[in-house]
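Rotation project, supervised by the postdoc (A.L.). Task for the rotation student: set up a whole-complex structure prediction and record inputs and outputs verbatim in this book. Inputs entered:
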Amino acid sequence: MALEIQIIAVFIAVACAVLGVFLVLRRMSMMSDSITHTILLGIVLAFWVTRDLGSPLLIVGASLMGVLTVWLTETLAKTKRIAADSAIGLVFPLLFSVAIIIISRHMGHLHLHTDTVLLGELAFAPFDRLIINGVDFGARFLYTSGVMLAINLLFVSVFYKELKLVSFDPTLATVLGFSVHLLHYGLMTLVSLTTVVAFEAVGAILVVAFMVGPAAAAYLLTKKLLWMLLLSAGIGALSAILGFQVAIHFDVSIAGSMASVIGAIFMLVFIFSPSEGLISSLIKKNQRKKAFSERLRQLHLSKYPAENQLKSKKIPSKA
Amino acid sequence: MAILLDHTFQIVALGSGMLGLISGVLGTFAVLRKESLLGEGVSHSALPGVVLAFLLTGVRQTEVLLLGAAATGLLAVFFITLIVKYSKLKFDSALALIMSVFFGFGLLLLTHAQRIPTASQAGLSRFIYGQAAALLGRDIHLLLWVSGGILLLVFLFWKEFKVFSFDPEYARVIGIPTVRIHVLLSLLIVTAIIVGLQTVGVVLMSSMLIAPAVAARQWTNRLGTMTLLAALFGIISGVVGTFLSSTLERMPTGPAIVVIATSIALISLLVSPNRGILQGLLKRSRLRKEGI
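Outputs recorded:
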């Protein structure tokens, strides 16, 4: 049972971490936060139509709502009347509020609690078994998350070149004839779908940690996209494993502990990364400062040689 | 209309209105500095603070929990600023990361707190979703004092905030202590968010900062007018939202306020005289006709 939870956690973490790379590179991290909120409305609306909490239409509705969120936000931002960040902050609270209003007015008798959507609980995942003809094939969630991971990996490897181009130079991509919009919405559909699959286990808000955290840490460690993808996936998997152990040891929320481990790993990378870390950038800053004052001194000496000979004989100067 | 004379309604409406007022005023600066999503970040980061305050002190008094929330909220802002300053990560990634990690850590602490037999979870989870209807006279007192303080500080540092919001480089050149002004502004925003948590909850607080300010921005190009308008829109959203939730059955207050605030913003975006989307379309079609 513990092994199943562990495998599910790793699947989800890696599925999120791979997509997160492109969110971080394309500066759309907060869009994932927005989507994690609005899928609730998608689920609520789909449930209103189907009246069945187990229906696959719920996943479809949630994913569609995720894409709709992206479209609404970008349409608002494109009017140039409001900044991109305000557009995000205007759209998702509205959709989320509508969802909560619908739930409390029409579905009060149901067990569709906002708690489950926002917080999630991985520990319950193994109780939902996939049973075909009476044979137990393991936790249903093992398969859902596995399929999700496979889809994401497939998408990234098939469209690797296109994603790379679109992330680093969207203008060139357009000129070369790639459909930037198609890729963009393809990526956002996968982000929504992954969020929908993952939130059941780890809760909507922590999906953001799984997507952005490993990718942000990887971003500070390398300048190569391929390495960034691999590192991000690795850090995601590592956090899932360590986080689970911590959660078992202290008997606390699994998802919460995994997110905390992600935060700890990021902080370590942020401080100690050889090329981009806090320490190395402070050292670099100091070196630049010294180099600048040295050049300034040289410049001064070369401009006023006479004065220089009088005042500071000790300092050797080319002038 | 008897509801308007109801004491509970008056208290809740006063609280929501005050909250709308201060979040409108502070949201103006947040929106102009393109840091409007800070509200989202801080409100999520408040969770570990609330739980830690409870775990350390063992009391469930609002003031103590709010203090804890403010502490981790500020810590989150500090981390975000640090990451943006010393790495190539941009504001949005740093915000998303810190916010979700803090929330995750809060969740970890919350599950730990729930294992303590004396802990009644009710007081803690109220901070996640907010519960305006549960506002008490005592909470209103706190809200009034905090709002008064915030408004006074904004009034005193008006010039500094103004220059800092539009041109931080220039502000530094003319000798304004930008770091201190930044800290003060963040402190005020965090305070407003924290006192707002118990009314509209973590998830919806970000909208209270953004929607009134965005709406106000459409009607004017002057900061003073924009701030006053944002405050007005905030008050209207708070009071009308509260009214709707007390007259309609099973209408939650927080979401009602958010829907009103966002509607005002969307209407302003559409019909405002100078920047409105409709106005822009009209102008375009007129130009096209003249061209032919």
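Student's summary: Chain B touches chain A through 67 residues (CB under 8 Å).
Supervisor addendum: The first helix of chain B runs from residue 7 to 32.
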